[in-house]
Amino acid sequence: MEHILSAGFEKLLNIGISLSSVQNLDELLDMILSEAQFLTNADSGSIYLVNGDTLIFKTSRSNTYFKKWGEAKTKQVFKSFEIPITKESIAGYVTITGKTLNIPDVSKIPAEAEYKHNTNFDIKYGYHTISTLVTPMMKHDGTIIGVLQLINSQEADKVVPFHKEHERIIMSISSQAAVSIVNVQLTEQLKSSYLDTIFRLSAAAEYRDKETANHIKRVSYYARMLAEKLGMDKEKCELIYWATPMHDIGKLGIPDAILQKPGLLTDEERKIMQYHTVIGAMILKGASSEVLAISRLISLSHHEKFDGTGYPQGIKGEKIPLEGRIVAIADVYDALSCKRCYKDAFPEEKVLSILKESSEKHFDPDLLKIFLDNMSSVNEIKDKYADTEKDFENIRNIESIKINELQG
Amino acid sequence: MEHILSAGFEKLLNIGISLSSVQNLDELLDMILSEAQFLTNADSGSIYLVNGDTLIFKTSRSNTYFKKWGEAKTKQVFKSFEIPITKESIAGYVTITGKTLNIPDVSKIPAEAEYKHNTNFDIKYGYHTISTLVTPMMKHDGTIIGVLQLINSQEADKVVPFHKEHERIIMSISSQAAVSIVNVQLTEQLKSSYLDTIFRLSAAAEYRDKETANHIKRVSYYARMLAEKLGMDKEKCELIYWATPMHDIGKLGIPDAILQKPGLLTDEERKIMQYHTVIGAMILKGASSEVLAISRLISLSHHEKFDGTGYPQGIKGEKIPLEGRIVAIADVYDALSCKRCYKDAFPEEKVLSILKESSEKHFDPDLLKIFLDNMSSVNEIKDKYADTEKDFENIRNIESIKINELQG
């Protein structure tokens, strides 16, 4: 037994460190489970997280099924499971009571036990569950956020009960895991609030220009897609996605009389209108955040043209920041392909021919080629975030707003 | 020795868990240091973090000085220190080489060693450093983010060298600490970017109404101060602080012709103008984020009056959400006490008498009393975020913007 404890000691320290360095929930859960499986020599295992009054299978690993189905399919099959939290199931019992269950043989659970082994799964997939070790994942304050279940500990190719020492190791991993999971969830929540705030405030600002909230979304998704297809790293693609919604924020500095003028602008008015790029960069200037720094670049450069005939600086080619060249394509494509209050959507054929004609003139030809080579992704985004008639209803039509519904 | 290892085992597991649950950097560093001190029976200790080419003392603990000066003063005194990262200092040597130094007696460091003990500190504060244990705090990828230094291990009231076992324990704590520190720093960066984004976009939206960016800041700080003095929990105060900047975001839906009209509005125009509260709530509606939910409440209710004569709903008393009652005071106080483009700042006496007259009519009398009881905090905020003449320069004065400076 001594070697288990001693190996466990080193391992636990490293797990604590590793866990807290993972920032993605799925990766984190897989790592926790994989370590737990390794330390207990378990054939299979699952992590369930509490969601209201159900437990959701978040990740599963199984040597047997990995061999039989491969890793991807196994995870897919198991991921869809969800069980109610009641004392009748083993995982539910552990969630409710906070007790660890170390069951040597699930077929010999005493009849008087409150829980029983659900055989549906074994029957459906031809698995033979014998021993199982199930521990709650508990936060500092005692809240149980999920359950770690290990199945069929192996010794010399035979299924054996989990050792007493395994209990201690797994309980320790579970509480470390709980903290890391909560941390990652908090960070994910924070990020999603941040992104939601950017989209809402940017969309609200665009509203004066009669753009819909979906316009902002489509342009941002097109930009991210282009960045991905260009092979930019994942983090940079996310930054571009977050930064793009703010590309027109400088329009807040343009008076209604110009921004909303029907018909052609005078030279003087056009000059002022073009300054939205510069005003946007002013608003975003001097921020320490990477998102805002990229947003500033995009604001300043998304109306530059590849041949140097754009504004505000008239820079050309690769002098125009890559992010600006990306958003230029995304923004113009959206303007052409979607309905605006002053025009209908152009047919796809016409849109593509306008874009192609503008290659090397308005657009970076390499980027444009990538964009056009990925029209199926483009169309997917376009359809997913299509404007409805309702989006065009003016929110200035204020009488129709039901104030009661806003009180929440 | 066995008991050290065994105590260390349990402790280390718990430390790993505790560390990853702390979300505030100062608290985290203090906890790391306190545990390290406890496990090695050290009289004193410091944590330094790498900042460019210097090491900054981030936190210190010392039984000797805590007794002599108390905890607060000790931390204050030590916090101001900063040393260059060179091999000549012990901490610098550890930072550069990544080696742990366990020095039994600093007065006996061999002359050929690259580092030496800097006696300035001992001389200045009358301390007598003998033994020291200094370990690097290293991330997974090998980057050293700081150094943990322990001084004068005690045994039976005598200073003794640190044990070999202490080295192992402290190295392990240090690497757990490094991960936790980096996590907390990342979260703090994310939060500060988020907050910066809210303030910038909100300020930009207010710009159409000729409000300065500082107006948004002052109102948000007043609101947080009131929430704090009311005794709301820290997290709620922060939420109010984050949510307040967006209280007028609905003005994006009000046309320039009304928003910027000089002189009095017609009844119809006033009705439209008042709808900025409702439009704001529409923009913020349905968000899952707590910040935006509170912001929506504030937007909808910050023009309600305590006697029910406000808008848009004309609700009264405690039917008006507390957050709205708070921002009402903050917003009106700021309008009265600061210069606007259409009016000068009122003298403090006049501001206070207007507020007092409005108690129970416009404002919640209990909240107003708290506000008025804390005029020193109010004035501090007012002075810190005072508008300068430059803030009133119109950014529409676009010719003066230097585009080159925006390219960054």
Your description of this structure?
Two copies of one chain form a homodimer. Chain A folds into two domains: 2-185, 2-Layer Sandwich (Beta-Lactamase), CATH 3.30.450; 210-397, Orthogonal Bundle (Hypothetical protein af1432). The first copy, chain A, is built from 18 helices and seven strands. Chain A has helices at 2-21, 25-40, 63-69, 71-79, 90-97, 120-125, 164-206, 213-229, 234-243, 256-259, 267-274, 276-284, 290-301, 322-337, 348-357, 365-373, 375-384, 389-392, and strands at residues 42-51, 54-62, 82-84, 101-103, 132-138, 144-155, 158-160. In chain A, strands 1, 2, 3, 4, 5, 6 and 7 form a seven-stranded antiparallel beta sheet that branches. In chain A, a hairpin with a 2-residue loop joins strand 1 (42-51) and strand 2 (54-62). The longest helix of chain A is centred in the middle third of the chain and has 43 residues, at 164-206. Chain A is elongated and about 85 Å long. Chain A starts with a helix and ends in a 16-residue tail after the last helix. Chains A and B meet through helix 1, helix 7, helix 12 and helix 13 of A and helix 1, helix 7, helix 12 and helix 13 of B.
CATH superfamily of the largest domain in chain A: Hypothetical protein af1432
| Coarse structural class of chain A | alpha+beta
Averaged pLDDT of chain A:
89
The biggest sheet of chain A, with number of strands, parallel, antiparallel or mixed sense and barrel status, is:
7 strands, antiparallel
Alpha-carbon Rg of chain A, integer: 28 Å
The CATH class of the largest domain in chain A, by name, is: Mainly Alpha
What is the count of helical runs of chain A? 18
What is the CATH architecture term of the largest domain in chain A? Orthogonal Bundle
Oligomer: homodimer
Distance between the termini of chain A: 58 Å
